[in-house]
Amino acid sequence: MGVCHVHQHVWKAWRQRGTGVCLAVCLLLQPAALSAAALTNNGESYEDQAAGKLRQSNELQQKIDNVSEEKRAIDEAADAAIKEHQARKAELDATEARMKENEDTLQGLQKDYDDKRQALGKRVRDIYIHGQISYLDVLFGAKDFNDLMTRMDLLKRIIRRDYNLVTEVAAVKDQLELAQAELEKDRETQAEQESRAHKARLDMEEKVGRQQALIERLKTDKALIDQQYEELMAASRQVGAMIRERGDGGVQASGSGAMIWPISGPVTSEFGWRVHPITGSQRFHSGVDIGGDYGQSVHAAQSGTVEYAGWISGYGNAVIINHGGGITTLYGHNQSLAVSEGQSVSQGQTIAYCGSTGNSTGPHCHFEVRRNGEPVSPYSYL
């Protein structure tokens, strides 16, 4: 069974978790139980916490700005990676086109080379077989010496031309084979570059996604901090108004001293630190929870004046009694109330009926004792 409770130690835990606005509201809505001095202290505490929330908000905004700037740079890098990917793909396509064109050219030259080589081979064989006769034919067929020299020069030119043709075709073939090897290498390089560019693009897109998610989380955190800041400022303003209204510090002591248990039943949750049954987080329990049944009478622990009777966020239907001397008691989670504000009550008088309103998991009475607004162990007064 649980409620939102207030204590200076709770404030520290609350600041660490950033989830304590409910605590501030709980304290805010029990104004009559607090002395003017306690309200002043609490008002200053609210303002200090509000200032802390404002600092947190500003820090989160700075983080959002920083991450947004980082995301902008990543967006630019991602755009560059995409453009590089497209450029590499275009270069690869151009390389493949050149490769196809050169392959066609190489096939044509290869055929021409093969034809010429075959013809040259036939001529070489003819010269080898009929070489001496041919030279004799050239010699004896000449009309004169000049004609002989002309025929010999012509024969040399034919042989040289064929030789040059073979050499040229071989050179072209070597060049094309080299070009083909280079293009194959370029193609492998381009494919590797295209793969790297594609990976870089995917990496950049992933980074952009992560940064955007981080920005959204920071914005959500900032919105929560801003909300807490506004609620704390509202609490501070209302506490200030309560201070002005209660400048007399409260009523004088009228109780007899010792308190009685407000309800008969087992203690289900002690005063002090505990795991909250609703939130599951470590919370300071500012009172004791006493198990009861729906409709069971809840009694005033000591005589005094009802300073508040009504709904308090977290506590549900609650009654606060001022016993004077800075001592107040609170009775929370009631099904209904039997007293009203300003009413004098005696010790043991029925002031409410047990229930499970507010942040509660079952019927019980949440009983608090406060000294100058600060929760203290009820056992010191029972």
Kindly give the count of domains: 2
According to CATH, the homologous superfamily of the largest domain is Glucose Permease (Domain IIA)
Structural class: alpha+beta
CATH class of the largest domain: Mainly Beta
Shape: rod-shaped
Q: Which spans of ≥5 residues are poorly predicted at pLDDT below 50?
A: 1-45, 239-244, 246-256
Instruction: Return the CATH architecture of the largest domain.
Output: Distorted Sandwich
- The CATH topology assignment of the largest domain is Glucose Permease (Domain IIA)
Mean pLDDT over all positions: 71
Number of strands: 12
Number of helices: 4
Helix fraction, binned, reads 55-70%
What gyration radius follows from the Cα positions, in whole Å?
49 Å
Gap between N and C termini: 21 Å
Describe this structure in a few short sentences.
This protein is of the alpha+beta class and 382 residues long. Helices cover 59% and strands 17% of the residues.
Describe this structure in words.
- By secondary structure, the chain is of the alpha+beta class.
- The protein folds into two domains: 157 residues, Glucose Permease (Domain IIA) (Distorted Sandwich); 150 residues.
- The chain has four helices and twelve strands.
- The strands form two sheets. Strands 1, 4, 5, 6, 7, 8, 9, 10, 11 and 12 form a ten-stranded antiparallel sheet that branches. A two-stranded antiparallel sheet has the order 2-3.
- Helix 2 runs parallel beside helix 4.
- The longest helix has 106 residues.
- It is rod-shaped, with a radius of gyration of 49 Å.
- The N terminus is likely disordered.
